Amino acid sequence: MIRKRRPVVALASDHAGLEMKRRLLEAMEEWGYEVRDLGPIAAGSVDYPDYAEAVAERVSSGQAEAGVLVCGTGAGMAIAANKFPGVRAAVLYDDFTARHARLHNDANIAVFGARTMAAGEVVARLRIFLEEPFEKGRHASRVSKIEDIEKRLGRQA
Ligand code: RB5
């Protein structure tokens, strides 16, 4: 029997996002994704750039199809992750943004704020993000322009 490979999703948080990360891990496993939990595994203060790097590196290199990051607000994780070539990390502050970050921006990392968003809403929002396709068309040439910027800066994936 030929089995289709399950999509790989890299997941991490900082201490502020730890509990929400657990909820998202559980949900994604239930939905059939192959989740790489890149930590942290225990409570205790950590630095969000270390975890943003772990997820962004896997998405940038193609080891994961998508990434999910959680910190207090989502801001720090998004700032750090977007330093990586080919990474398009978006803070998904509502469902409309989750849908359009995929449709229009081909976002490949979903970022959430555990101190600013309700966990139940975030679980549903993540599913929108993971299932919505990129619309391509006129949006593809706009995303290409982002890649052009990376090339000009010498940061190609
Ligand atoms: C940690 O206290 C907090 O700074 C972090 O979770 C995040 O919100 C940073 O952007």
Characterise the protein shown here.
This protein is α/β, with parallel strands linked by helices. The protein has one domain: Ribose 5-phosphate Isomerase B, Chain: A, CATH 3.40.1400. 45% of the residues lie in helices and 15% in strands. The chain has 6 helices and 5 strands, in the order βαβαβαβαβαα. The protein has helices at residues 18-30, 48-60, 75-81, 95-103, 119-131, 138-152; strands at residues 8-13, 34-37, 66-71, 89-91, 109-113. The protein has a 5-stranded parallel beta sheet, sandwiched between helices. It is globular. The model has no long low-confidence stretch (mean pLDDT 97). Bound molecules: D-ribose. D-ribose binds next to helix 3.
